[in-house]
Target: Putative glycosyl hydrolase
Amino acid sequence: MKQAAAAGTKERVRIKDGFWDAYAALVRDTVIPYQWEALNDRIADAEPSYAIRNFRIAAGQEQGEFGGMVFQDSDLAKWLEAVGYALGTHPDPELERIADEAIELVAAAQQEDGYLNTYFTIKESGKRWTNLYEAHELYCAGHMIEAAVAYYESTGKRRLLDVVSRFADHIDSVFGREEGQLRGYDGHQEIELALVKLYGATGERRYLDLAKFFIDERGAEPNFLVEECGRRDGVSHWTGRQQPIPSVRQMAYNQAHKPVREQDVAVGHAVRAVYMYTAMADLAGLTGDAELLESCRRLWANMTGKQMYITGGIGSTHHGEAFSFDYDLPNDTVYAETCASIGLIFFARRMLQLEPKSEYADVLERALYNNVIGSMSQDGKHYFYVNPLEVWPKASEGSPDRRHVKAVRQKWFGCSCCPPNVARLLCSLHDYVYTASAEDDVVYAHLFIGSEARFELKSGTAAFVQTSLLPWQGGTRFEWTEAPETAVSLALRVPSWCGGQALLKINGAESAYRTVDGYAVLTRVWAAGDVVEWEPRLEARLIAANPEIRADAGKAAIERGPLVYCLEEVDNGAPIASLSIDPDTELIPTFDAALPGGAVSLEAAGRRADLAGWDPDQPYRPLGQSPEPAAAELRAVPYFLWGNREPGEMAVWIRLSRV
Amino acid sequence: MKQAAAAGTKERVRIKDGFWDAYAALVRDTVIPYQWEALNDRIADAEPSYAIRNFRIAAGQEQGEFGGMVFQDSDLAKWLEAVGYALGTHPDPELERIADEAIELVAAAQQEDGYLNTYFTIKESGKRWTNLYEAHELYCAGHMIEAAVAYYESTGKRRLLDVVSRFADHIDSVFGREEGQLRGYDGHQEIELALVKLYGATGERRYLDLAKFFIDERGAEPNFLVEECGRRDGVSHWTGRQQPIPSVRQMAYNQAHKPVREQDVAVGHAVRAVYMYTAMADLAGLTGDAELLESCRRLWANMTGKQMYITGGIGSTHHGEAFSFDYDLPNDTVYAETCASIGLIFFARRMLQLEPKSEYADVLERALYNNVIGSMSQDGKHYFYVNPLEVWPKASEGSPDRRHVKAVRQKWFGCSCCPPNVARLLCSLHDYVYTASAEDDVVYAHLFIGSEARFELKSGTAAFVQTSLLPWQGGTRFEWTEAPETAVSLALRVPSWCGGQALLKINGAESAYRTVDGYAVLTRVWAAGDVVEWEPRLEARLIAANPEIRADAGKAAIERGPLVYCLEEVDNGAPIASLSIDPDTELIPTFDAALPGGAVSLEAAGRRADLAGWDPDQPYRPLGQSPEPAAAELRAVPYFLWGNREPGEMAVWIRLSRV
Model:
């Protein structure tokens, strides 16, 4: 099933959307070329990447030392993956030529036995597979595999696919349960989901089995990563010195503290977690593993129900870029790494494939429209790694506890996982709009993004064009261009943000519908020219957080459709914390062309604490000495746009003037 | 002047107070004996101190390795200092015998040339004075000097005074501006204020000059600490490895980034800062240095006006136990180290000596009644090092960002500076109640603590007995027991917490008074038997924070007299964040004998957010779906008592139900 779904996906959905086309164009026209410059160390004032140079040295084309992080190879891989997707929708011979050359470089760096990793080739030759815990060897392999699959599927070129297949075969010979094989797995999950993709592209079952091996071994006793540390006498890649051997419990950081089937709370490094959950969902579907599916459901429920920011961000603490514990969602010391939200989207997509329930798509949309696109500047050249919900620029400079929270998007990072991850997601967005079940003759529309879509169902071809005015206006239209002769279903998501109020018209006539798992399921014999109009109510609303989330107590956020809003200093003055919002305020939308790209801002009624009456040297005084806060007009802008004008304070959660 | 003030202080004020006697007794009967056991490594389940053992090894009485921190000697010193004060008020031959033995042990560990430090004697012989930046050599010297002065002044015994004088003479030979001398200073200030005390006790001017040398050299170019790191090739005491040579700017941690006279913002490690400011104020007074006084005023204004918690805590961040920046006072990631508040009290005391203004005493009282005594459990055996204003026990366990914030007081610490510091302060509390200016024939009453006091003024002896019902009831009474034959002044502080409303009666008759710098100055010819009744209004009030303090926006704290109050989970349920307080609530006091030691609790009207209506797996929902928060009765208890019953959440700042 998965294999069939993967092959040719790119040909079936093509995005044509007033909002998203600009992002895709930005990635193609700016991000991909800019990142290529970055990979080649040609960006002034940015930390060098060393990624291309490392491959040249490993290929014997240049002399020098390895540069950058131990996982630097993955940056080139993610770039190639993005290029693969981009070429699938927008042929570009010059870009393809550059990518082909880069692929030749990768091939040249591959070793005789199929091994491929510039760090261990250049710098620690002979130490292959001795530090899975820290050295990201299989992680880098996974990213190169993902790149190869994307590039093969869009261009039909097998060069990189053959390279990574040889590498995967080598990995398959090194890892396993036979005598002389390593019964282990990577410290940073990624290879697992990549091997599933490689299985999809090649049909080679052993890649699927290898993915399952890695997932099944993870967290089993005796703990491989702990024992591996012991074999190295605890010598750490990062410090170069002996460290205490970690306990099994500490392996929670790597989600290897117990078998994955026994895990029910999202713990540890957030990106590792969601990459693993993605592979678990893949395997649950492809192997029919009900126990694994149940684990996925439990982990999903915990993560999205108790550990997710309203922006779709995950990871509450900088320390280990990690989950902390249920309901702990501080807004200012937050992590909410861009890559983690991208991994959350991967996981959601897999769950939608397994069981189309709108809650998965609600979260997918939330992460996409807020945390993910908010991480990138409108020029495509600056990125947030950490995506805060509250920013005080002075704290980012002056408080060590919040130094990781940048108030301004940065150029390419030393550890630059996020920018190419954003690029590859935005270039493959067409994969996230729909899923289909050919067997059940149903197409699910999860996202409201303008697109041409074509699916081969059991009863025949279903094709339609979606047009959408989101996120600024509600209303989506599906016009059929081809339909089977018998009844098939179009299932439209009832997004959580419409409060259950969505209007349906079929060929101009208002129509009732039945809702199954959050989808309006429209089953009939469709004909080319049939028009479905779907209008979920798009109205700005104040949102409250569960009172268990201490950080948001007495506060409200603003949402309108899929967008979370925020207050910025440039519109509202500072301190933002001195403002409160009236719980019964109207939220008046205005389309403001002056906002970057044009956007709907919201006016709201609130109050502002008296600042003028305070002596700056007086920290405290009786409450009775303060006048009632004066009425104030607040202006909220979409969260994803924050930080694109003057730097300043920002907050998503706003104090309520009455609670 | 200073010398005169210091000599015999102990004989002039004797505390007899319903509230404070219990603390002094706790220190004498429990803390001092318990700490002695700790210093001797005889507390089960607590980390060993090694302090006594180190002295034995250094004295050649035992074989072994140095144990504990590089500054472990200071723990014994602080204990001896506390014992000194305790013996001054409560003779105890057995305790004195133990202390004398400990002093003999210290003397035995002193080297031929006067040098005294067990770490460098045992472990790094030959490396004396090569790592002032990190190794606390002069810091430990300072504490032993303070101990010697206290012990000498209470017992008249010179043994330890002679030891530290020899050590100070040795230091004086090592440091200075002559050829072959070190033109440097300690990484952790403390020696400066100690040398001033040694000058006071011995009259030897060279100790004062040496203190001035250390203060004057600090932060001068070229930077001594930076150059010293260079001479060690950056090898660090803490890591044992080469570290990058720090910049002058990084010396802000040690307040050595620029000359002290140019410093105007409190920066760096908070304890180091206030110990230094204390010595600066001492020197400003003793040397008539107006520039230094002006620096003290600026630093005081910044620290107490913009960087102090309402509990009198200072130090906003765990990283470096340090100040962060103006108005940055997070309640949950707070540091507010006990020792820092004690240092703040030292500084305030010196400023009161220089210029009696009630703001100094207001802060002194705030730190004493809240941060300092709150750090100790009611059994005297458990301590907070960090004194948070908001606690969520799960976060202390589950969030690395708040792991330093303990929800329960701990036994003796590995770095155990705080417990003996509390002990020495509480045993010398008599030094903080009054200051007098003999020249001006005035006695200032800064604190309202029952006590017998006697001062030699220019016109003669002034003696009276203060009785006080604080902190539970207002009202203080001063009965004269001896008075000069000419007019002298009793100046009574008008505490900030009375809102300028304080009733005065003299011999039963209500009386007007003039206020100078926050003191009601009563000048007349007093006679034995004269009674002054002084009743500052003691009424619970809601307190607001300056809106620049983001962390407290929309919240209020509760104060009653000198006490800050808090909400605890044991009284109010959890989450505490789900509660709000009505801005116009009455705050009804009740004396509750069931609280540890008996205390006044306060009832207030507030609201509690609906918890029952939330699905635990639902993080967010439209605000409109939540009912109005229900009315709730809140119960606040004194902050200093928190954590003495069941562990749970606690908060000082409470959301207002209307802002």
Summary: Chain B has a mean pLDDT of 95.
